Amino acid sequence: MSASSLCVVATAFFALGVVWFTGKALGVRAAGTPPAHLGARPEPVTARERIDLRQPLRALAVTHGATLAQRGIGLDLRLPEDPLPVAVIAGDLPQLMAHIADAAAATLPQGTTLHVLARAEGHQAVISWREATIDSDTDAPRLSHAFETSASRAATPRIHACRTIVARHGARIYTAPSPLGDGCLTLRFPLYGDRAVRAPKGLL
């Protein structure tokens, strides 16, 4: 074979190799991860809005007051004169209050008054829930106990939903003393903005 023929054959093999490599690369690209600009968009962050915490508490008295009364449970709502602004996902606070009211209706005995005290402490908006029975029975069921779990008692779907909402907002729900007394179900939300009020000593 002449030198010119060998040159032609080598050129042909080189061209075939380029075509094969290009096809292989395109195949890998098609089967692999798409380019960054074509990938799935990140999930949008749920918008939050400024809400006065007193509003869902007032609505609670309207939406659940009659239901509690039918079960023989009174509702004593104490709200501050000043707003309690918090930044929350729309709809979460009414749902949270409804779950707590339902837990109270399912837990507390007839003849109980559920006292609800809202206030500002430090950089937090605080709500305390405490029941009072007519005969002051110390062994009567308590709302705070419904939110406590142990090895023998798991959280109900209602309680789990409350904890999920609270965690989503960087808040806390737990048992603590308050001006209402010991063993209160306590809900703490970060106040919106720079407002701060000195908290009573020993209540944080």
What's this entry about, in short?
The protein is of the alpha+beta class and 204 residues long. It has helices at residues 3-31, 54-70, 92-107, 143-146, 157-168, and strands at 48-52, 73-78, 85-89, 112-121, 124-133, 172-178, 181-190. The chain is built from five helices and seven strands; from the N terminus they run αβαββαββααββ.
Task: Please characterize this protein's 3D structure.
- With 204 residues, the protein is of the alpha+beta class.
- The chain has five helices and seven strands, in the order αβαββαββααββ.
- A hairpin with a 2-residue loop joins β4 and β5.
- It is globular, with a radius of gyration of 31 Å.
Fold topology:
Blueprint: H1 3-31, E1 48-52, H2 54-70, E2 73-78, E3 85-89, H3 92-107, E4 112-121, E5 124-133, H4 143-146, H5 157-168, E6 172-178, E7 181-190
Parallel strand pairs: 2-4
Antiparallel strand pairs: 1-3, 4-5, 5-7, 6-7
Helix pairs in contact: 2-3, 3-5
